[in-house]
Amino acid sequence: MKFIDEYRDGDAARKYARALKRITTRPWTLMEVCGGQTHAIVKFGVDELLPANVELVHGPGCPVCVTPLELIEKALEIAARPGVTFCSFGDMLRVPGRETDLLSVKARGGDVRIVYSPLDAVEIARQNPAREVVFFAVGFETTAPANAMAVFQAAQAELPNFSMLVSHVLVPPAMEAILSAEGGRVQAFLAAGHVCTIMGFTEYEPLAAKYKVPIVVTGFEPLDILQGVYMCVKQLEEGRAEVENQYSRAVKRDGNLPARQLVREVFEVVPRKWRGVGEIPSSGLGLRPHYRRFDAEYRFGVADQRTEEPTECMSGLIMQGRLKPHECPAFGTVCTPEHPLGATMVSNEGACAAYYRYRRVRLESPAARS
Amino acid sequence: MATVIPGASCPLPLTQHAHVLLGHGGGGQLTNQLIEQVFLPAFQNAALGERHDGARLRMGTAQVAFSTDSYVVRPLFFAGGDIGTLAVNGTVNDLAMCGARPQFLSCGFIIEEGLPMEVLQRVVQSMQSAAAAAGVVLVTGDTKVVDRGKGDGLYINTAGIGLIEQDAVVAPSSVRTGDVILLSGDVGRHGMAVMAAREGLEFESLIESDCAPVAAPVLDLIASGIPVHCLRDLTRGGLASALVEIAESSRLHLGIEDAAIAVREDVQGACEILGFDPLYVANEGRFIAFIPEDAVDAALRVLSGHDVSRDSVRIGRVTESPAGLVTLRSRIGATRIVDRLSGEQLPRIC
Questions:
Q1: Which of B19, B331, B346 sits opposite A10 (nearest CB)?
Q2: Which one, of A183, A241, A193, A253, lies nearest residue A217 by Cα?
Q3: Alpha helix stretches (DSSP H) within A254-342
Q4: Percent of chain B scored above 90 by pLDDT?
Q5: Could you tell me the maximum CA-CA distance found in chain A, to the nearest angstrom?
Q6: Are A217 and A200 in contact (CB under 8 A)?
Q7: Closest CA to B249 of B221, B230, B277
Q8: Could you give the domains of chain B?
Q9: A223 vs A32, A60, B262, CA distance in Å?
Q10: Which domain holds residue A130?
Q11: Contact B332 A116 (CB under 8 A)
């Protein structure tokens, strides 16, 4: 298949792995930011092709995983109210709050629906004027334009029964938090390709300069990731710290300008809590005052509702690359995808789920090393 | 396992579910939990304990296979089939997977008040055509009508009986080390066809369900004297779930090659968009067969003589360890576990 098969080719992958081995003279630690990349790495076994002294640690880029308990609790409360139709992307439904999850709210009679686009939720609102339709807007910069478009359309149509529970987060502030944390060991980043499709990569240039880290915008297929790693290691070995673009078939330096403009129109930068990490200043998006009437937190009076996060959740350490999933004592024993302790075990993109699904038993794969 | 990190704690886990979730019907881990914790303890007996697609029973001198399935597909009609063809082929295929010749079906209709008569006629018509094509007869049935709003238009249950004509037991317990795993064609079409119809997703080409009876090639294998050790159709939960179930019940290791498994380009594309793994997507006309190495070439010749299994290929092999696990060698050469899905596959965020 075009744009899939050629990026999963075994011979080409081994060729890249050999080239990487040739240029690597010292140990290096790289972080892939995006959860989609984490899953591809573990699913295809990309890390098994790397030289032993190049380590990949997994970053915070799983939108489900970083959504704070507080927002999940608000979602659960709103979704359980009569008269509310609560719309969400599928993978949020299994994330546990303190006592329950959205799937269970649905099983007890809540009108919880999986949609494929926030615009579907706007359409449901249009067709059901007697119901309050809420969309759970979770995600990084990648999903922000579609969510902005939903609010923009609802405003134009003056839909009184549509609102959005917003939990948008931004990648660069999270990377900065990881870089400035004490004991950090990340020496280079594979930046999330799809985020950069929207945002471009100019925001990473000051980070690369300030912290002297190479940042390579990287795609999601095995060969993309291998090439991204190669470009990072090459920079490290040569003592450079620049922003480079591996994913040039999808990413331009300035990103998608109309999409960015729409996001700016509807959202403003706000401080956000990250599950397991805590509050990071200027790390998320919230609706601008002009669009506040579409903010579900205000409409349902839950804006001031607070939920204490456990002081330091293990998943927070995992998302900051300070711990690998299998190093957690709960991994695979008391914490499994059926009974997740943290969101990293629930989500398709969560690092723990990836390790559990593909690696809970250590397997020999001699072929991969050759 | 690593040391405990001081000060680290996780959110409280959800304990057992107090209500039935949709995922309990998804064919994954939750379904398995339901079977093991609720159904098996209540109904335990030898035939049920085999946990095959149907029960193998001795009645007098005859050996029969007996199976049942309920069909709740939405929408009722989709590209390549409808609830009627599914209801017939699904049960026919379950019987075939026991190595049985499907013969008689029962049929229960649960109809929602207000269903257009024309819809019912169409479904019944396609059931009749499917039954004729599969060589089975619908011999008994039942009809119930529920209040408007209490059903999804139409639910159908079918049960079937088939005659087992050979002595060898076709079941997970017969799988042996060294067996080769054959797959009867490409995977993922039915699930994506229904998904596309249900959600109004439009792809460049029309993805048609693979819904079809597979009894003919299976019975041909047996009639040709090929020692078929085990068969399994790849319905709910897809190829991956079928393999995991057999690995677990046989306590053997099944190793498969990703590159050998065919997925049509449009199905692969649709799965990529939604974040689905085609190995877990449902099929209605595909099966896997466990055959000893020395009979593989003959088996492939037989299978390639039937339209429904024309593209059969070998996808892997059975070895001793790691016992109870399925592993897959990825296209870039690394090996990983293939696991049972936790609940249903849910479309991802980005």
A1: B331
A2: A193
A3: 257-266, 296-299, 314-319
A4: 70
A5: 66
A6: no
A7: B230
A8: 53-164 (3.30.1330.10), 172-338 (3.90.650.10)
A9: 14, 22, 21
A10: 65-169+258-299
A11: no
State how far residue B186 is from chain A, nearest Cα, in angstroms. 14
Dump pLDDT digits (tens) for A156-203.
999 999 999 999 999 999 999 889 887 788 999 999 999 999 999 999
Task: Judge whether B4 is closer than 8 Å to chain A, CB to CB.
Answer: yes
Q: Nearest CA to CA, how far is B329 from chain A (Å)?
A: 8
Residues of A in contact with B9 (CB under 8 A): 310-314
Handedness of CA A188, A194, A200, A203 (dihedral sign): negative
Query: Are B199 and A116 within 8 A, CB to CB?
Result: yes
Average pLDDT over residues B226-234: 96
Query: What is the structure's pLDDT at B6?
Result: 36
Decide if A40 contacts A220 (C-beta within 8 A). yes
Candidates A323, A321, A310; CA nearest to A276 is A310
- In this complex, do A360 and B342 lie within 8 Å of one another by their Cβ atoms? no
Chain B residues near residue A142 by CB distance under 8 angstroms? 350
Mean pLDDT score of chain B:
89
Residue A128 within any structural domain of the chain: yes
A-contacting residues of B 310-339, CB under 8 Å? 322, 325, 327, 329-337, 339
Number of domains in chain A: 1
Which three-class secondary structure state does DSSP give residue A239? coil
* Structure tokens given for A157: 């149509």
Four-point Cα dihedral B55, B57, B63, B69, nearest 10: -30
Q: Name the band, by pLDDT with cuts 50, 70 and 90, for residue A342.
A: low
Measured between CA atoms, how close is A11 to chain B, in angstroms?
7
Q: For residue B337, give the nearest of A103, A317, A357 by CB distance.
A: A357
Of B17, B339, B348, Cβ closest to residue A90: B348
Chain A residues near residue B2 by CB distance under 8 angstroms: 323, 326-329
> What φ, ψ does residue A215 adopt, rounded to 5°?
-130, 120
Question: Exposed, middle or buried by CB within 10 Å (0-12, 13-18, 19+), for B65?
Answer: buried
Q: Quick check: A367 and B21 CB within 8 A?
A: no
**Domain annotation covers residue A53:** no
pLDDT of residue A147: 97
Answer whether 0.95 is exceeded by the pTM: no
Give the CATH number for residue A266.
3.40.50.11740
- The amino acid present at B223, given as its one-letter code, is A
pLDDT the model gives residue B136: 97
Return the CA Rg of chain B. 21
Query: Is residue A164 in some structural domain?
Result: yes
Q: Which residues of B touch A167 (CB under 8 A)?
A: none
> What ipTM describes this predicted complex?
0.74
Residue B197 and residue B176: Cα distance in Å, rounded? 41
Hey, are the CB atoms on A99 and B329 less than 8 Å from each other?
A: no
For residue B348, the distance in angstroms to the closest alpha carbon of chain A comes to: 5
* Within-domain flag for A328: no
The encoded tokens of residue B169 equal 């037991």
